[in-house]
From TrEMBL:
<dbReference type="InterPro" id="IPR010667">
    <property type="entry name" value="Phage_T4_Gp19"/>
</dbReference>
<dbReference type="Pfam" id="PF06841">
    <property type="entry name" value="Phage_T4_gp19"/>
</dbReference>
<dbReference type="GO" id="GO:0005198">
    <property type="term" value="F:structural molecule activity"/>
</dbReference>
<dbReference type="InterPro" id="IPR011747">
    <property type="entry name" value="CHP02241"/>
</dbReference>
<protein>
    <submittedName>
        <fullName>Phage tail-like protein</fullName>
    </submittedName>
</protein>
Amino acid sequence: MAVMKGQEKGRFHDVATTFMFWIELDDIFVAGFSQVSGLEAETEIEEYREGGVNGYVHKLPKGVRFPNLVLSKGMTKSPALWSWYESTIEGTIERKTGAIVLQSADGTEFGRWSFFDAYPVKWTGPQLNASTSDVAVETIEIIHSGLYGDFQA
C-alpha cells in the first residue's frame, strides 16, 4: 500500500493553520496576538581547513543562535506589555517563561514552541495616521535563551 503525503500507517495527520495561536507568559494566557515572528533556530558553524587537504573544508557545529521573538497585537487598555517593558527601562529585568501555542482547526492544542529567560528589549506603539482606519497595533520584542518545540502525535 502506498503511503500518501501526510499519511502514516493509515492515519492522516492534522495540518495546522498559521492564524490560530495564542501566547502564554509564566503559564498565563496574556493576549490574543495577531502576529509572531522570530520562530527560528540556526546552528552556527565554524569552517576548518585541514593542512594539506584542499578538496574540502570541515564544517563544525559551534552553537545555536535564536533570534528575538517579535509579538504584535491590537492595542487594548491593558498595560501588561508596556509595564513589562517599563521594568526593563528602569533596570529591573523581569525574566519570564513562555510559549507560542498553535491550535488545530478544531481549537485544540496542536503543539507549542516554549522559550525561557525571556525579557523585553523593545516596545513599539501604533503608527498613527488619521487618513486610514487601521487597527492600532503594539509590538513587543523579546530576547530569550532557547526555543523548544513540542508537537507530539
